[in-house]
TrEMBL record:
Top-level enzyme category: oxidoreductase
Domain spans labelled NADPH-dependent FMN reductase-like: 1-131
Keyword terms, alphabetized: Oxidoreductase
Species whose genome carries this gene: Kocuria salsicia
Protein name: NAD(P)H-dependent oxidoreductase
Length: 188
C-alpha cells in the first residue's frame, strides 16, 4: 500500500512543505509507504497536451511522469493553501493534467488558511469528486495563525503551528489507512 502527499503550494518560501512534513511524520509512525510529492519540482505547465487527458495519450514527459506517480499510489493526500478565497493553480493544474489515473484511488484534502481554507477545500472536493478519488468525507481544515510565522515567512515550529489539529490529522490518516486496507483486502 502506498500513499502520496502532495505539497500544493509552489511558492519557494512556504509553509505547505512544513504541513506536509507533519502529515508525513504521522504517516511514517504508522509504517505506511509514503512519498511526499512537491508540485514545484514536477514543473507541470498549464495544460499543454495536444489530446485531452481522458484519452490517456500523453505526449509530454512531465505528464507521463505525473501519471506514473499517481497510478503507483493507492491514496493521494492533497495539502493545499487557499489563495484569494479559492484554489491555487498548482494543484488544479496537477488534477486537470490527468483523468483516468484518479479513478480507483483513495483521496483526502487538507486545506489551510487563516480561517481553515474552507473555500479551497470545497472547490477541490468538488473537482476531485468528479475525476475519481474516493474522498475521505471529513478531510481537514487547518487554521493558521500569523503568530506562528517567523520573519522568513515560514513556520517557526511546524509541529506547534499545527498544534492540537495534529490529532485530527492523525485521525484522518488512520481513516485513509483503514480504507486502503479494506480496498487491499477486497482485491485479495
Ligand atoms: C496569492 C495569495 C493569496 C492568499 N489568499 C488567502 C486567502 O484567501 N485566505 C487565507 O486565509 N490566506 C490567504 N493567503 C495567505 C496564505 O494562507 C499564507 O500566505 C500561506 O502561508 C500560504 O501557504 P504557503 O506558505 O504554503 O504557500 C494568501 C496568500 C497568497 C500568496
Amino acid at each position: 500500500m502506498k500513499a502520496i502527499v502532495i505539497i500544493g503550494s509552489t511558492r519557494p518560501v512556504r509553509v505547505g512543505g512544513q504541513i506536509a512534513g507533519v502529515v508525513d511524520r504521522i504517516r511514517s509512525e504508522r509504517g505506511v509507504d509514503t512519498k511526499v510529492v512537491d508540485l514545484s519540482e514536477l514543473n507541470l505547465p498549464p495544460l499543454n497536451e495536444p489530446q485531452v487527458p481522458a484519452t490517456g495519450q500523453y505526449a509530454r514527459e512531465h505528464t507521463r511522469n505525473w501519471a506514473a506517480t499517481v497510478s503507483g499510489a493507492d491514496a493521494v493526500v492533497v495539502v493545499t493553501p487557499q489563495d484569494n478565497d479559492g484554489d491555487p493553480s498548482g494543484p488544479k493544474t496537477a488534477i486537470n493534467s490527468l483523468y483516468n489515473e484518479w479513478q480507483g484511488r483513495l483521496g483526502a484534502i487538507i486545506s489551510y488558511g487563516g480561517r481553515g481554507g474552507g473555500m479551497v477545500y470545497d472547490q477541490f472536493a468538488q473537482v476531485l469528486s468528479l475525476v475519481g478519488p474516493q474522498l475521505d468525507p471529513e478531510g481537514e481544515k487547518l487554521f493558521q495563525s500569523r503568530d506562528d510565522y517567523g520573519e522568513n515567512g515560514t513556520f517557526t515550529d511546524a509541529e506547534a503551528a499545527v498544534g492540537a489539529q495534529a490529532a485530527e490529522i492523525a485521525a484522518l490518516v488512520d481513516r485513509v489507512i483503514a480504507a486502503m486496507s479494506e480496498k487491499d483486502g477486497a482485491q485479495g
